[in-house]
Amino acid sequence: MKASVDGMLVAEAPDDRIIVVEGSRYFPPDALIIGVLQASPTPYTCPWKGQARYYDVLSTTAKYPDAAWCYPAPKHSAIEVVGHDFTSYVAFDAQQIAVA
């Protein structure tokens, strides 16, 4: 599976390493292309997953605000519900970043 924007690859991983949570596809941290994410100050806490960290996605031509997020320390109960440890896995906003 690949995530891309403006014709630029931002993440790539085999399908069996992708974790789907509430319809979002989460890529393992080692699947990300170095330098495409920039920390965002946007705060968010999911009631069942915990505190999220948002990122802006940078392409060679544009900046896509809050187009990616992860859970650096998801709640243990969320890991149990999902059935996989998705700590620091990154998901992308499908309206800004193509995932296929």
Report the radius of gyration as a whole number of Å.
13 Å
Proportion of strand residues: over 45%
Mean pLDDT: 97
Number of domains: 1
CATH class term: Mainly Beta
According to CATH, the homologous superfamily is: Domain of unknown function (DUF427)
| SSE arrangement, N to C | EEEEEEEHEE
CATH arch. level architecture = Beta Complex
Share in helix: under 10%
The low-pLDDT segments are: none
- Please state how the strands of the largest beta sheet are arranged side by side: 3-4-8-7-6-5
The count of DSSP E runs of length 2 or more, i.e. the number of strands, is 9
First-last Cα distance: 6 Å
Q: Pairing-aware structural class of the strands and helices?
A: mainly beta
What is the makeup of the main sheet? 6 strands, antiparallel
Pfam families: NTP_transf_9
Domain DUF427: 1-84
InterPro entries: DUF427, DUF427_sf
How would you portray this structure in words?
- This protein has 100 residues and is mainly beta.
- The chain has a single domain, classed as Beta Complex (Metal Binding Protein, Guanine Nucleotide Exchange Factor, Chain A).
- It is 7% helix and 48% strand.
- The chain contains one helix and nine strands, in the order E-E-E-E-E-E-E-H-E-E.
- The strands form two sheets. It has a six-stranded antiparallel sheet with strand order 3-4-8-7-6-5, with no helix packed on it. A three-stranded antiparallel sheet has the order 2-1-9, with no helix packed on it.
- The longest helix is centred in the C-terminal third of the chain and has 7 residues, at 76-82.
- The mean pLDDT is 97.
